[in-house]
Amino acid sequence: MSRTRVMIRRLAGVQHLLLAVLVVVGVGRGLGAGDAAGPLLGSTALFLAWYAVGARRAASGRDLADGRGRPGRGLPVGGWWLLGLVGVWLLTVVASPEMVWVAFSLWLLAGHLLPLVHAVVVSVLVLAVVVGRGGHAEGWSTAAVLGPVIGGVFAVALSRGLQVIVRDSQQREQLVTSLVAAQAEAEELHAELAQTQHAAGVLSERTRLSRDIHDTLAQGFSSILLLARAGAATGEPAARTRLLGQIEASAAEHLQEARRVVGALAPTPLESGLVDALGRISARLEQESGVRTEVRVEGEVTSLPPGIEVALLRTAQSALANVRQHARATSVVLTLAEAEDSVRLDVVDDGRGFDVATLGAAQGSPAGGGYGLRASRERLLELGGGLDVESEPGRGTALSAHLPRSAGGGWR
Ligand SMILES: Nc1ncnc2c1ncn2[C@@H]1O[C@H](COP(=O)(O)OP(=O)(O)OP(=O)(O)O)[C@@H](O)[C@H]1O
Ligand SMILES: [Mg+2]
């Protein structure tokens, strides 16, 4: 039960107790003064019965205790009940003037159950009865008038004051409840957000890993496969030995890459910078496939952010793997160039080219190939750059990757 409800219950308990005491005092004094017992006890029993009806209704939580009233919309239920109670009380007062003692409880109830104006009117009427019926019992005096007036004003003011306190406390409780609800909602949203962020993080990490595997390990295996096939096809022991050496070198290098991917450490080819790394991978292509390679550098492209270096290196690895697998080129030129606020990497081969329009249909199935260009493009787009592919059957292929210099805080 809320603290406010407990407080209301206690106040009601005090009210019931007070009324009981006043009734006992009134009846006792009335009988003591020789008033007729029948009418007095009968009217008092009726009074208590009517009071009990209201008390029960209030305790059951119905609106009897709501004394705020709605101006212009008549009396609240409690108001009508109180008028009834005042009526029965008048009967008790007729039976014995001593029953004016009970007026204090009526004032408290009026202050509590009626809108202010109604409360004042009813209280004044009750006061008039108290003064008229009780006052002259012991002879008229200033005290006999002033006492009830002070009692009435005090009782009405007290119950109005208590009402304000109760209402404030109810509002505070509502506020606390809504704050707690809002906080719970915020926590729920926060948890949902964290979950979404976690899911997005997992997805982006998977994408990064799948690209890394494609651009490093898959290309490594594909080059080892080509070398092994060439070795199997040749009858010359010297050529076989040379190819075996190349297979070993390629396997060793890609083993290192595999370790880096697994450990998510800094990419090994980049320890000495992008230009060096490009030189190394093109030299290896040349060595293994016989395609002439050249690396050109234009402008200030050293000390690029690691994110840019890794993205461009991965693009170059994928592009050179395509040259090796598809182009049948005799030469390929890699150009790393500075262009205003961005960096560009072009990979141009003189191979057989392909119809760029067919690219979309071919891509999308990692198992069957067609992943490389899409992955490169997505990686570059994520960093705010892009990838252009120009090719025509029989006229070579030109890939141009570009990235803003501001990109590449992390590496992908
Ligand atoms: N330099 C190139 N010369 C000729 N054709 C190319 C060249 N680069 C790409 N292509 C064509 O574009 C297609 C798509 O290339 P992409 O790198 O996306 O996939 P893939 O090389 O077929 O497979 P994966 O890269 O997933 O191993 C290739 O299958 C090939 O037909
Ligand atoms: Mg490819």
Coarse shape: rod-shaped
Give start-end ranges of low-pLDDT stretches. 63-72, 364-368
Specify Rg, calculated over alpha carbons: 48 Å
End-to-end C-alpha gap: 58 Å
Q: Which structural class should the secondary elements be placed in?
A: alpha+beta
The molecules bound to the chains, other than polymers, are:
adenosine-5'-triphosphate, magnesium ion
**What number is the mean pLDDT?**
85
Number of domains: 2
Describe the structure.
The chain has 412 residues and is α+β, with helices and mostly antiparallel strands. It has two domains: 3-182, no CATH class; 272-412, Histidine kinase-like ATPase, C-terminal domain (Heat Shock Protein 90), CATH 3.30.565. It has eleven helices and five strands, in the order ααααααααβαββααββ. It has helices at residues 3-32, 37-59, 77-95, 103-113, 116-134, 142-233, 237-263, 274-289, 306-327, 359-362, 372-382; strands at residues 292-298, 331-339, 342-349, 386-391, 397-404. The chain has a five-stranded mixed β-sheet, covered by helices on one side. Residues 63-72 and 364-368 have low confidence and may be disordered.
How would you concisely characterize the structure shown here?
By secondary structure, the protein is an alpha+beta fold. The chain has eleven helices and five strands.
Topology:
Blueprint (H helix, E strand, L loop, with lengths): L2 H30 L4 H23 L17 H19 L7 H11 L2 H19 L7 H92 L3 H27 L10 H16 L2 E7 L7 H22 L3 E9 L2 E8 L9 H4 L9 H11 L3 E6 L5 E8 L8
Parallel strand pairs: 1-2
Antiparallel strand pairs: 2-3, 3-5, 4-5
Helix pairs in contact: 1-2, 2-3, 3-4, 3-5, 4-5, 4-6, 5-6, 6-7, 6-9, 6-11, 8-9, 9-11
